[in-house]
Amino acid sequence: MRIVSGFFFLFLLTCFNQRAFAQVDSMMNVYHENFPQEKIQVHFDKNYYNPGETIWFKGYILSGISLSGISKNFYAELINEKGSVIQRVVSPVVGSSAAGSFTIPANFSNQFLHFRAFTTWMLNFDTSFLFEKNIRVITAATTTAAPANNVTSLQFFPEGGDMISDLETVLAFKANDNFGLPVKVKGYVKDAAGKKVIDFTTRHDGLGSLVFTPAKGETYSAVWKDSTNKEITTRLPAAKPTGMVMTAKTSTGAVTFIVKRSDGDDALKQVYLIAHMDQQLVYKARINLSQNFLSSGRIPVDQLPSGVLQLTLFNSKWQPLAERVVFVNNNDYMFDAYVRTLDKKLTRRGKNVIELEIPDTSLSNFSLSITDANINSTRETDENIYSRILLTGDLRGYVHNPGYYFASFADSVAQQLDLVMLTHGWRRFNWDDIAQGKSPAIKWAPDNYLALKGTVVGTGNSKLTNASQLNLILQFKDSSTQFVAVPIAAGGKFAAEPMVFYDTAKVFYQLNKDKVQPDRIILTVDNGLWKGYNTVQLAANVNEGESPVENTLLLNNRKVFEATVRMESDKTKKARMLQEVVVRAKIKSATSKMEDTYTSGLFKGGDGYNFDLTSDPLANASMSIFNYLQGKVPGLQISNAMSATPGLSWRGGTPDLFLNEMRTDASAISSISMADIAYIKVFRPPFMGSIGGGSGGAIAIYTKKGGVSTNNDFVGLNKVSVNGYTPIREFYSPNYAQTNALDDLDDLRTTLLWEPFIFLDKDKRKVTLSFYNNDISKKLRVVVEGVNDNGKLTHVESMIE
């Protein structure tokens, strides 16, 4: 992506209006190309939690209808009711996704925690579009019903933005209680003299609309009643004496619009209409109203992707007059995924086996959760990846039950969705800036992974000039090390290639041409991540939009929580008793030993192929590493294997190459003697350890070691510490096929399986997953969400019962 700070103006057209039209067109293209908007959907393992439990989550990042390649770092925060950030997770973005977890404090006593997720690129724009969600925590304070002192409010929204005197107007309305939940109301509109003009009533989830023509100089009020039968009067928006009214309606393959003007304003006799989606202009028209006060048109949308389309009407001076958002649904946003139960045992600690399969050949990225259905209640109306990416990610404000609008293709649902569009705004653009050719001010450039940049201080510039580079030795938490050599720029500045590591690392340093004493050199190092704020501004009502908890669900969660507290106490006692017990572990396999000896971080484990050359008597017969690998990895194409620069291809991409976990090239690999190679790992795409997500996979080569060093320090070298990404917590799934000393304790897990990264493609279209039931569950809920490399989405729910 190319970031620009200005705009190249077009002066080719002499007509002012034509020039303005061209400028808006061109600036829209600048915004689309250089300032794309990211949207985030977060899949949680379940909807409700108890104190002390872990919140597991997976974030998907898209830009428009495509996977986002903008941001490399994903930020998630857990915020209390006072706006204090109590936990923050920073994760690398791989395949336009990231995963993490939070642990709710065991003494947490409130009903909600606020979760928000974002990238630093998103902070450059309207923060209303960050992902935010209230996490319901079942505590002693949680009730089964909304508080009794609810207050209902009624808001009115003229279609297009304003009511205009003597022009027929569509007036949408929304009725909510003070928790943001919809309520039913009915009433009528009256004029200043008290004369009834028109009746109205809500049609769906507190939403409705009415049509009437406001008279010039007249004021109107709505008189209405909610379920308490209390009569309330609300003033309607005042009608402007002159202006434009725009109405829009979606139909098969098109959006039809009607524009009407009032008399008395010459600037309204020629107007301009544009329609755009994902900041890309898809329609523009000049409308001549000099002879008529009304005009209509048809915008073809059958070739557009599904999503929010915004229409904006301008006067002859290119000042915005009216805006309207509509939803285009061409049913093109889904891809198929199937979940099958292969073996079901809902008995105590019974083993279950499921299969996830795709019929398509595209690379697909999934997350999967399996929970106790009696503890974790979900509905098809809940927010999901469809509703978030296509709808709520482009609208301000709370939308009740957004999943409902994607659960049915009925015309009635489409009409109800249009009420949502009438009562919510989009408006990402400042049209004055667009007209003047101004681009957004960018504070946060697109980021990369951990930067590891800083300054060498404590010696003069002449000394640094003599030192060609800085040698860095990174020692990670597992005692593995990585050597990095970086050039030193003016002022002692340095920056290493972006990297990925977790927790903290010790950085030992030394000048390559050491002209000064090591203890006179000081290194300042920064990881390049956004440091964030300790407090954030929450909405006035942090609990807005949260439905009361069902009584059965509440009771089931409380029972499990109370039993878990007792079990944890028993586990502590049991653990003390087991201190004298001798535990005999399985003998590690040869591959496991090689993994422990040679690999670290993201190179440990993984999805791919492992080759232990120390146990392969035929390895030395190969002329090169690439010659050795030919034909051993399905899908990996190697041409000219004997050349210094062989051709490598895997699933349309080129595998990244690593020597002892440092990035290298094919020529360096080709020159290594086969007798010096101990271990080779070939990672299936995508590989998380590669910069950019490793869409072509990776090949990691390890040279033989004389022995494993036990020295955890590098004598004579100074060191600093640098933070990496938030450490990954591994989801615990017990294996009851093996005896464990703690098996006699109750198993009360409410999330039975959480798999944040499942990758399928044409070479691997299905995966089999097994897990054991707990002691109490009789019905399980499986939820799968995912994206593929074409930007298509999937959401699948099934039951095991």
Outline type: globular
**Can you tell me the residue ranges where pLDDT is under 50 for at least 5 consecutive residues?**
1-16, 575-587, 707-711
- The side-by-side strand order for the widest beta sheet comes to 2-9-8-5-6
Mean pLDDT: 85
Based on CA atoms alone, the radius of gyration comes out at 31 Å
Structural class by helix and strand composition: mainly beta
Major sheet details: 5 strands, mixed
- How many strands appear in the DSSP assignment? 44
Helix content: 10-25%
- Beta-strand proportion: 35-45%
Q: Cα distance, first to last residue?
A: 48 Å
Q: How many separate helices?
A: 9
Tell me what you see in this structure.
This protein has 801 residues and is mainly beta. The chain has a 5-stranded mixed beta sheet, with no helix packed on it. A 5-stranded mixed beta sheet has the order 33-38-39-36-37. Strand 15 (220-225) and strand 16 form a beta hairpin. The chain is globular and about 95 Å long. The model is unreliable at 1-16, 575-587 and 707-711 (pLDDT under 50).
Summarize the structure.
The protein is mainly beta and 801 residues long. It contains nine helices and 44 strands. Strands 2-9-8-5-6 form a five-stranded mixed beta sheet, with no helix packed on it.
